[in-house]
Amino acid sequence: MPILEVENLSVSFKQYTVGLKYKKSTVISSLDVTMEEGEILVVVGASGSGKSLLAHAILGILPSNAITSGVIKYAGEELTPARQRVLRGSEIALIPQSVNYLDPLMRVGSQVRTSVKNGNAQAKQREVFNRYHLKTEVEKMYPFQLSGGMARRTLVATAMVSGARVIIADEPTPGLDSAVISEALNHLKEFADNGCAVMLITHDIESALKIADKIAVFYAGTTVEISPVEHFSGKGEQLRHPYSKALWRALPQNDFIPIAGSQPHPNQLPSGCLFAPRCEMAAPDCEKVRPVMRNLRNGMVRCNHAT
Predict the structure, then answer these.
(1) Distance (Å, rounded) from C-alpha 253 to C-alpha 245?
(2) Please, what is the Cα angle at 233 between 228 and 237, to 5 degrees?
(3) Calpha distance 106→117 (Å, rounded)
(4) Tens-digit pLDDT profile for residues 126-159
(5) Is the predicted pLDDT of residue 19 greater than 80, yes or no?
(6) Count of CB atoms within 10 A of residue 101's CB?
(7) Which of 18, 31, 243, 250 has its CA 20 to 30 A from that of 90?
(8) End-to-end alpha-carbon separation of the chain, Å?
(9) Which domains does the chain have, with CATH numbers?
């Protein structure tokens, strides 16, 4: 049984315009992913494709004007708002994109210790600091006294001591040099090796390939493909969705061919396949009905013409 299942998730935001009038903007629609224990699922896609919103929906930290539908299950049971509050930070932990998530008024050692649910909190905090090469004196520092790398290792340490079974890392490596990126990826691999299910949200496909088991490709707020990592190779012949193939070929180490057009705005989504306006394979039926996710060649794809 998957430890985490997201089925047909949709997220909309209510935005007031004039007076009491409002409009509803749908930013995620028909999004599906599953996670297994000991597995690393990498989520890739352009900015605005819904990657971080998925993480926030799982954790139950969406803004108050968010409207959600669909089902999120943890260990086979629906993840209701009440259950999210209980599990957040204990069994489901976030490694956030920004180091600003650290409390600026609290010493970092104390912050990490608050995530320890069992055993000696100080001993576990010092053990994990030693593992991540954070000296003893770091625990008495405030976040503003840390380097960027130290702050990120502190965030990872917080997730490690929580004992979580699901770790969601939201863009943990932006702007870091190759050595620090490698270190961060090794931390995530360690989580998976210890039996955690890890979701890595990133733009850096090349780095993610080093640790991924599966890769989920998002486009305009929906999942268009879930593929074993080994299919992201060569010219992308084993990939299923036209967007996945185009994304792979756009990388500098591949053909470096840009994808024509742009991702549609949430308020201007086409009625049929969301990628159809940019797709060379688009047929008349693609513009009428949105395709559903289906199994294909040991993966999943949202495309009627994928083979």
Answers:
(1) 14
(2) 90
(3) 19
(4) 999 998 889 999 999 999 999 888 898 899 899 8
(5) no
(6) 15
(7) 31
(8) 28
(9) 4-91+164-301 (3.40.50.300)
Position 180 pLDDT exceeds 80: no
pTM for the structure as a whole: 0.90
> What is the per-residue pLDDT across 247-302, written as a single tens digit (0 to 9) for each?
999 998 898 888 889 999 888 899 999 999 999 889 999 999 899 999 999 999 99
Could you tell me if 57 and 9 are in contact, meaning their C-beta atoms sit under 8 angstroms apart?
yes
Residue-wise pLDDT for 199-210, tens only, equals: 999 988 888 899
Per-residue pLDDT at 267:
85
- Quote the tokens at residue 13: 């935001």
Give the 3-state secondary structure of the chain.
CCCEEEEEEEEEEEEECCCCCEEEEEEEEEEEEEECCCCEEEEECCCCCCHHHHHHHHHCCCCCCEEEEEEEEECCEECCHHHHHHHECCCEEEECCCHHHCCCCCCHHHHHHCCCCCCCHHHHHHHHHHHCCCCHHHHHCCHHHCCHHHHHHHHHHHHHHCCCCEEEEECCCCCCCHHHHHHHHHHHHHHHHCCCEEEEECCCHHHHCCCCCEEEEEECCEEEEEEEHHHCCCCCCCCCCHHHHHHHHCCCCCCCCCCCCCCCCHHHCCCCCCCHHHCCCCCHHHHCCCCCCEEECCEEECCCCCC
Q: Which residues pair with 170 in a beta bridge?
A: 201
Model pLDDT for residues 49-78, shown as the tens digit of each residue: 999 999 999 999 999 999 999 999 999 999
Which residues neighbour 213 within 8 Å (Cβ) at sequence distance 6 or greater?
39, 40, 41, 192, 228, 229
Quick one: what percent of the chain has pLDDT higher than 90?
Answer: 70
Structure confidence by residue, pLDDT tens digits, 95-109: 987 888 899 999 999
